[in-house]
Amino acid sequence: MVETTTLPAPNLPKFPLARYLKNQPDAVEDRVVLHAPQAIAYAAGSSEVQRFTPTNSLDAWLLRSPQGATTVDIPAHFVSGDDPIVLTGPKNAGGLLYVHVGKGAKVTLQEKWASGGHVLGIWLMLVVEADADVNWLSYDSFTADTVLVNRTATLAANAKLNWTLAGFSHNSGLNRVDVRLLGHNAEVTVNVGVLASGNQHVNYTTSVTNEGQHTVGHINQRGVITGNAHLMFNGIGHIIKGARGSDAQQENRVLMLSQRAEGDANPILLIDENDVTAGHAASVTRVNADQLYYLMSRGLSATLAKRLVIRGFLEGGLAEIDDVRLKKELFATIDRTLVAEDA
């Protein structure tokens, strides 16, 4: 077992990772359930843990307790069609999930977690081979007390990843997304939509590293905060030396609904190459009174007007979800949360 103190900490600005790593993750072994065509290779068991090699203290923590490990292998040139490949996390456990997308495949995947428990750790490792096109949705609705999620992805040449993360959980902790654009012309867009409520303290750190030439990394994070919750967004775009012709853009926007809510938006750009384009935007604000007044002047109640404003704000992070039933479920969750906060 690798101790967390022997490895460097990942780049997580303003997040007290060391304090969280003092907690022992729940020692519950279970597996992720796969719903997919038979052509998709699937394996689960302790032998699959060997695919996960820790490079930082968070990785090591995720391997500290026995964890259920699942691997999914999507063959080269596979096309998923209209039906997504669905991965569902266990009811009361975290776990390790390794997904390999073969060369030239075109797939849509949905990853869903609603796990309960005390302290959970999730590690997703996504490997996208050359010329593959992946549309990935991560839907988190954890009920556990504390959850540390580490989602990592590597993209080979000409690979494309459109990643949407919907965070509608009740836990405190961390949700980290780290994407490395290794091959030339690789592209990723990470869209994040989060609703933080109650007494949650949660950090979302999304980082994209442009390593290949002419790579494109875009980050778009939107968060709404109610009650006593504290939500922090970190966006990190890093263009390394030699990644000529690359582009790194990001937006981090937070909307607070109560006087007790706390929000942070921290855009970070690290540029080590001259021939590139990069930009960022960030905002932390409260509900626009003019928007509410306009809607109320058209006969809407204050409560309904506020819900519409919030839906419109979060849509910026969830617009890529084309599953109508799932989007209705997300908006129903928003409505239930706001009703509970107003009660």
TrEMBL record:
- What PANTHER family does its record include? PROTEIN ABCI7, CHLOROPLASTIC (PTHR43575:SF1)
One BP term from GO: iron-sulfur cluster assembly
Can you name the source organism?
A: Lacticaseibacillus chiayiensis
Put simply, this protein is called ABC transporter permease
Q: Which SUPFAM superfamilies would you find in this protein's record?
A: Stabilizer of iron transporter SufD
SUF system FeS cluster assembly SufBD core domain location is: 98-313
Organism classification, top ranks? Bacteria, Bacillati, Bacillota, Bacilli, Lactobacillales
